[in-house]
Write a structure and sequence with these properties.
By secondary structure, this protein is an all-beta fold. It has a single domain, classed as Immunoglobulins (Immunoglobulin-like), CATH 2.60.40. About 0% of the residues lie in helices and about 55% in strands. The chain contains no helices and 9 strands. The protein is globular. It holds the Pfam family AMPK1_CBM.
Length: about 100
């Protein structure tokens, strides 16, 4: 899994690209507090090599909690900026700091 960030000079946003290698998966989405944890708002596109990829714009100077939803199973990003304990879910979430 990987995350890449590209800060725009012309607007106060950061383009974040999420890449998830999941050859056997049918559907992969990024869910988090930025999209009300909705699996429909940020579905990643499957590439020919089996990786799922998507790029989204986020306001910069903020922190976001997120997870990947791979065929209904929550997965943390290994390359996240850090992990944050979530009392409500009883588990850690990946954190994106922009």
């Amino acid at each position: 899994m990987a995350i890449s960030k590209q800060y725009l000079k012309t607007r106060p946003v950061c383009k974040v690209t999420f890449s998830v290698p999941a050859e056997k998966a049918v559907k992969v989405a990024v869910v988090g507090d930025f999209n009300d944890w909705s699996s429909e708002k940020s579905v990643l596109k499957r590439l020919k090599n089996g990786t799922f990829k998507g790029t989204f714009e986020f306001p910069k100077d903020k922190t976001y909690e997120f997870k990947y939803l791979v065929d209904g199973e929550f997965v943390n990003e290994q390359e996240a900026d850090r992990l944050q304990w979530n009392e409500y879910a009883g588990t850690e979430n990946s954190v994106l700091e922009l």
